Amino acid sequence: PTGSLLYPYGPHQGDKTNPKLDDGTSEAITLSIPFTFYGKTYQTVFVNNNGVISFDKPVRQYTPDPFPLVDGHPFVTPFWADVDNVLGGDIFYRQTTDPALLEDISQHITQYFPKSPFTATWALVATWDHVAYYGSTSEKGNTFQAVLTTDSKMFYIILNYWDIQWTTGAASDGDAETGLGGTPAHAGFNSGDDTNFYNIPGSQTDAIINITTTSNIKVPGRWVFRVDDFQVTGV
Questions:
Q1: Dihedral over alpha carbons 21, 135, 165, 127 (to 10 degrees)
Q2: Which residue has the higher pLDDT, 171 or 3?
């Protein structure tokens, strides 16, 4: 199901699809515009099945750890949990300079950050579409999206939560029937150093299932952050 919250996605948008592989990842994605995250600039990202977009190296870990992680890996976790796309759902991604999409993104970010008018020149859109959890005996699926975007000066990440039905895979002590309990999903940002990070409220608690109702920019289910020099807005 696509709602106004999600930017267009899927094969008909030119998206690539991740392999059907538990704890799998995309291929290394070479960015056509380098992306600055917590003051460092990266040219390669991975869209990891387990709800993580990582810089330089893939992340296959399925049970989330609290931030800050001290292993030096910078990444954003739209919804870090044990996704199993073999059991259900798809993970899509594309880099785009589509004018209609960039205009929508530009209008949204300028609306949320009116002191810094923004005209997007590029975006990476990654979408987890009705993805199942590891060990699932249910039909539950989660649909969420992360967008990296820039005007080549400012760098933003938009996180969209459309439908969240489970929080935990069975190998993370979740219940196979409900997808709840155990160590629930984590949403946030890990800089790669051992001091800078941000956790979206509810991370690694049962409350993360309600992320479709929360926001830092007054749009339920959407969280937006400027990430080149990371800044927390609202909350």
A1: -10
A2: 171
